[in-house]
Amino acid sequence: MIWEELQGELDALQHAGLKRRRRTLEGPCGPQATVDGRDLISFCSNDYLGLANDPALVEAACAGARAWGVGSGASHLVSGHLAPHAALEEKLAAFTGFPRALLFSTGYMANLAIVPALVGRHDAVFADRLNHASLIDAVQLSRAENQRYPHGDLSALEHLLTASRARRKLILTDAVFSMDGDLAPLPGLLALAERFDAWLVVDDAHGFGVLGRQGRGSLAHFNLPAARRLIYMGTLGKAAGAAGAFVAAATTVIEWLEQRSRTYIFTTAGSPLVACALDASLDLIAAGDARRDHLWQLIAQWRDGVARLANARWRLLPSPTAIQPLVIGDNHETLRIAGALYERGLWVPAIRPPTVPVGSARLRVSLTAAHSAEQVGQLLDALRELA
Fold first, then answer.
1. Residues in CB range of 7: below 8 A, 6 or more apart
2. Where in the chain are the domains?
3. What's the predicted TM-score (pTM) here?
4. Which residues are listed for substrate binding in this entry (predicted)?
5. What CATH number is given for 57-286 in this structure?
6. Which residues are catalytic?
7. From CA 147, how far away is CA 130, in angstroms rounded?
8. Binding-site residues for substrate, please?
9. What's the CATH class of domain 21-49+289-386?
């Protein structure tokens, strides 16, 4: 029976140490979390600048609700595109250096919009093997030929591009990889895109607001121009502290996405109060050098502390970003370590397959500007005991 099959598969996930558990927070997003009445220090969120509960964003959202209500009422192309949406798109375009920007409800929906709108049958996508699930799904929806290159390997990508006879070519990559924390070689990727007349789509979910001058993102980090063949996606629910996403690109590209992106056309526009909050968020990001400097100090403290742990089996990946993965390896051992930390009042997520490759289960430590050096020290002390 179908129900018994489902239960059997759930039991198999449990046995393999792969069943996920959802926890309910009893307070706003921040480094201090309360779960089931228990106070914890959270190293789980992607709120990299600590803006999710910032008073300026809360006040902007409240003012936006009073002026514009709560819902947009329709899709952007019907009657749901309100003045706060238009103002935010203009501000995002100026902030990232592109001619135009287009808002989406989530980063997942933005990625599902871009790829199928630009390529299809008889075309080819060249994707990094460690790309986010949304990018993988976007390629499948496009029906284009899917060619995956080894993580960050420009030579392998060049070989695939040289051999391809596809009508259109699209290079697809995360900017900051969400489970490893490392950066894509964006200058080399753009050079290959120019050489082989390909689109370059960059998902900067974990770089926007954090990297580059004034937090303008991974392209700014590498001093890359807003080239015509570049399509830039940034999410607004991580460092920006709210919700949604945007795509920034040349005017023609944005106009095409407006006409052909199903996840833009056939969904209700986001709340105007969120757009108002994000308008305030961009100001805080631009003026957020002190937050980012504090974050870099915490990253250095963490990496220095882990290097001193007496456990050769654990491996800290070479990440320069706020995502700091500590690879344990075995699923059950990773769960055990995460559980032991939880009992000590430290909440660190255990990441297991299929999110990461088999045998590379890990603790994914997310550091934010809202953390203190003392809180990072507590995590290091606990790991030192467990090591």
1. none
2. 21-49+289-386, 57-286
3. 0.94
4. 20, 132, 355
5. 3.40.640.10
6. 178, 206, 238
7. 13
8. 20, 132, 355
9. alpha beta
